[in-house]
Amino acid sequence: MPSSGHRLRDVEHHPLLIENDNYDSSSSSSSEADAADRVWFIHDGCGMICAVMTWLLVVYADFVVTFVMLLPSKDFWYSVINGVIFNCLAVLALSSHLRTMLTDPGAVPRGNATKEYMESLQLKPGEVIYKCPKCCCIKPERAHHCSICKRCIRKMDHHCPWVNNCVGEKNQRFFVLFTMYIALSSVHALILCGLQFISCVRGQWTECSDFSPPITVILLIFLCLEGLLFFTFTAVMFGTQIHSICNDETEIERLKSEEPTWERRLRWEGMKSVFGGPPSLLWINPFVGFRFRRLQMRPRKGGPEFSV
Question: Is 152 an annotated catalytic residue?
Answer without folding.
Answer: no
